[in-house]
Write a structure and sequence with these properties.
The protein has 16 helices and 19 strands. By secondary structure, the chain is of the alpha/beta class. Strand 7 (199-202), helix 7 and strand 8 form a beta-alpha-beta unit. The chain binds alpha-D-glucopyranose. Alpha-D-glucopyranose (GLC) is lined by residues 63, 66, 103, 167, 203-204, 266, 327-328.
Length: 534
């Protein structure tokens, strides 16, 4: 990267909004675009550069918008295209960027393309989806499984064939080997890019191409009964096929028609496989999402190793990125606990690379227990005994202590945390010990210090409890970050170098201002960001 002139998506922070749950403006209990507009000043105040909106398109909402019936429209729940244009304008007026969710792997079964495709075997759109004959005994064409439980094949009575769906049966997978499908989706991209959208988060990028021969996936010998049933087989033929990179490259060249647009790829793969999505010579995704902080055990040795492995594996042109939570995973607070989530915040905002913040994480919002009768997520409903519902991490944003937390004036679509009267933006803004204050201060420092924004990452030390690293650039201060990933006190002593400086930000504000030299004593759950003497 060019130190003197980093691109906005390298120096800036991305913030994910789950539109149903951010801000309701028309009293129907569901968030909407006018609601997002109302809260843009908050995001600007927080120091966010780019907003990524989960899907806002017309959809039957079987998978809450990830089942799209019209790629170029806006769901009436969220508003209309004028509201969208207004949002885009308001975002840009604040010198911010807008990223849309692009869901190219599958559409809704209500999309006109699929309705045509399923109407007859000789319909011109038949080959836009993945249709296969049954095996001689009438069973599914192969053993591929759906992410949401059961077989990934659905029998169609009318045309007497199965179609493939990696997710719900109402989310049929498009056939990306078909050039007409490619063209149609590139056309969708042009539609939004011409409007001025700054890029896309591309849904399940590693799913887009499947094995041409549709071979059976191997059985997973390590499958555990508590896991999602999709893990019974290893997805070696149904995902991450070599030809996907050609598709990603083509998507990239659509973006490259325009100035400074970008795409993030949603990809759950091990580091080496993930790296290939940057493309050879950097012609792939700008940021293949790096989900290690939300998939690895929260333990110092594992994390220290993974950070270095990731740094070491990045291609020369590849810019790193980090994520703690998203709408598909438990929130960081509920995975590592409230105290450690402060340490996690410090890690996310001091590592090298673009951080993505999931709405509400900056307040320390926790997964909300949803009574079974109120569960909405199909993943939760289809595998009820496995506790896989994603609803708990999708509850309404907590703005104020008013009824319904200032999110809405009526009962929201998903229940609020019962702690919202004390955990909300308004109360936390004036509380020096609040999570929001920690986020705000870390962001402010990160965005003003070249070493934190784009400087190099130098691992310094790690053991059973600690992870420590230095960030430095050719200009500005150098920083030492020491994180205690356990609840017990720990000692830090750098080997081979002398480090002296002053604690500038700490997970316990009482530690701030302290001068450190040689041995450093940290309490349990402590994170220290130290400005080193020059
Ligand atoms: C992605 C989305 C998830 C959705 C799935 C199917 O993983 O993040 O929410 O259910 O794709 O579109």
């Amino acid at each position: 990267m060019n130190e003197a002139n980093p691109l906005w998506w390298q120096s800036g922070i991305v913030y994910q909004i789950y539109p149903r749950s951010f801000q309701d403006s028309n009293a129907d209990g569901v968030g909407d675009l006018r609601g997002v507009i109302k809260r843009l000043d908050y995001l600007k105040w927080l120091g966010i550069k780019a907003v990524w909106l989960s899907p806002i398109y017309p959809s039957p909402m079987d998978d809450f918008g990830y089942d799209i019936a019209d790629y170029k429209g806006i769901h009436p729940l969220f508003g209309n295209i004028e509201d969208f244009d207004a949002l885009l304008e308001e975002v840009h007026a604040r010198d911010m960027k807008l990223l849309l969710d692009l869901v190219p792997n599958h559409s809704s079964d209500q999309h006109p393309w699929f309705k045509e495709s399923r109407s007859s075997r000789d319909n011109p759109k038949r080959n836009w989806y993945l249709w296969k004959d049954a095996r001689p005994d009438g069973s599914e064409p192969n053993n591929w499984l759906s992410e949401f439980g059961g077989s990934a094949w659905q029998w169609d009575e009318t045309t007497q064939q199965y179609y493939y769906h990696a997710f719900l049966a109402s989310q049929p997978d498009l056939n990306w080997r078909n050039p007409e499908v490619q063209q149609a989706m590139f056309d969708v991209m042009h539609f939004w890019l011409k409007k001025g959208v700054d890029g896309f988060r591309v849904d399940v990028m590693w799913h887009m191409i499947k094995d041409e021969q549709f071979r059976d996936n191997p059985i997973n010998p390590d499958y555990q009964p508590h896991e999602s049933t999709v893990k019974k087989v290893l997805a070696v033929y149904s995902t991450d096929q070599p030809e996907v990179h050609e598709i990603v490259r083509k998507m990239r060249s659509v973006l490259d028609h325009y100035k400074e647009r970008m795409m993030i790829g949603e990809i759950y793969l091990p580091i080496q496989r993930l790296m290939s999505y940057y493309g050879t010579d950097g012609n792939g995704a700008h940021l293949p999402f790096n989900f290690q902080l939300l998939t690895l055990p929260w333990e110092a040795p594992q994390l220290a190793a993974a950070i270095s492995q990731y740094e070491g594996a990045l291609p020369q042109h590849g810019w790193p990125n980090w994520v703690l939570s998203n709408h598909d995973q438990p929130r960081i607070t509920s995975r590592v606990g409230m105290q450690q989530s402060r340490v996690a915040a410090m890690l996310l905002l001091t590592l090298r690379g673009t951080p993505t913040i999931y709405y509400g994480d900056e307040l320390g919002m926790q997964d909300v227990p949803i009574p079974f009768a109120e569960v909405q997520d199909p993943q939760g409903l289809n595998m009820p005994d496995k506790n896989l519902s994603r609803d708990p991490a999708r509850t309404p944003m907590q703005w104020t202590e008013e009824n319904y937390a200032g999110f809405s004036t009526v009962k929201p679509w998903l229940r609020l945390a019962n702690t919202y009267r004390r955990v909300n933006v308004e109360t936390q803004k004036s509380d020096p010990y609040a999570m929001l204050t920690l986020y705000k201060r870390l962001i402010e420092l990160r965005q003003s210090e070249p070493s934190l924004m784009w400087g190099s990452y130098i691992p310094v030390y790690s053991d059973q409890q600690l992870v420590a690293f230095i960030r430095e650039a050719s200009t500005g201060s150098r920083f030492l970050i020491i994180l205690n990933l356990t609840h017990r006190p720990a000692y830090f002593k750098a080997e081979h170098i002398t480090l002296e400086g002053i604690v500038e930000i700490a997970t316990f504000p009482e530690d701030e201002g302290q001068r450190i030299k040689d041995y450093i004593t940290l309490s349990g759950d402590a994170g220290l960001l130290i400005r080193l003497d020059s």
